[in-house]
Hints:
alpha+beta
Amino acid sequence: MAVSPSATRADRADDVLVLARLSAKRGAVRAILDWLTRRTGGLAVLAGSDGSVLAAPGGTPDPAASPSAASAATAAVELHRRGAPSAVLGGDGAHPVHLVALGPGPGADTDGAAGDAAGVVYLAVVRPDDPRCGVLLADASRTLALCWRLEEAERARRRVESAEVHSREAVLHLLMVGSVPAAQRIAGALRPALPAVAQVYVIECPSSRRHEIAVRIDRTARGRAWIVPCPVRPHHLIALVPSEEDPGPRDRDPGPDRLDRLIARDVPECRVGVSAEVALRDTPAGYEQAFHALAVARDAPERCASFGGHTDVTVLAGPEGRTWADELLGPCLRYAPTRRADPGPRELLDTLGSWLSFGGAASRHLKIHRNTLAARVRHLDGLLGLDVSRRLASQSAAWLALRLHTAPWTAGAVDAATVDRAATLDALLATPAAEIWARTQLRPLEQARVTAGQETVRAWLQADARLPATASALGISLPGARKRLAKAEDALGRSLLRAPSAKYELWLAMRALGTL
């Protein structure tokens, strides 16, 4: 029975309306291919002129292994060779394939030349049951071409965005390991430029909204903040903010227009920790300061806090301290790898610093497998003659040595006898400068009069910063020990239970005062 022209026109109008509705959906290309597969009774795919299957209906398990999809890909290659925009290929025992060219494929020139190496994208339907398939494909190809280009543009945008994120992570990593010139060279291709003097902000926010919140923070900072998603913690953002962004001196009561307060006001989900002003080469110290401030900001009504200004341990970076640090790190600095693939001295020092800062999460920071990280830490144990993998005393010594080794100091006349006397950690911590520094570290805990604060912190340090052993030594429950340490965090204004922790500084301070 013949179909009337009016019925044909009505069916075609219905098909066009369906295509219009599907084009507005998320994943429109796949939705349209699903509908075409059901509508025609064949398999609808997108194939490239290079023989690749670019898209298939959602229910296709493996498009590349499907015989029908393979037929469509082969037909697309043949049609491209002929230079025709559409055709029906097959027959004589082969499955008929209806094809319509959508336009240039990914990476093709804007003129869409058929001979472009990137190829042309074809809509192909294999073995259709509908005799009017040609008209339907002609209508669908127009809508599908637009949807395909939109999805390709979105994929390209994501690739560019991912490349920028990884570039910014690389800049942050270089700053954290002290390679400032290299970081500045890479940052020169991005915006904004790295500030010479900055404050480091660590912003805690929902991980699913990091990108959105980063955009809002960038707008709040008027485009001058260098914002990087933290590669270690998925719910953190790190920002380097030029010091002039923060109006008013640091020793004055912060005004309502300070940037950290603006962030907390505009993005209520955020908690913000802010470092003191640091030079670009001191970004690692600024990050630790901001992380400690974040521990205070979590419980602060304003949801933001600035670093309390504890004296930095680099006050010990005189000739004696530098000599001790170089002696302790010497085996690592002089290490020559036996194989080309083995890490050299610079990589080992970077691994040591990352391990001390982030523990097991250092694998994400260094972009290496956790087994590789464990092997490197064991190697460091053997090289340094320490137990940095487990013992807090060894970790604290290595942490101090890294700080003193990289700290700037002015060379002058050095008394060799004095250096010899200060060639041990205990001798270095027995100096007047070390005693002053140690008392400064512990004074907030004394002044806060936290119940059993110093006793709890001491027991925690003696237990290698392990909570179960701390609770056992104090004869209290595990939640009780955690609660006491949380109060000590508030008193000190430092992070204890989350890395990077102030445990190394506290261990060294108590050791210098003879209480540990």
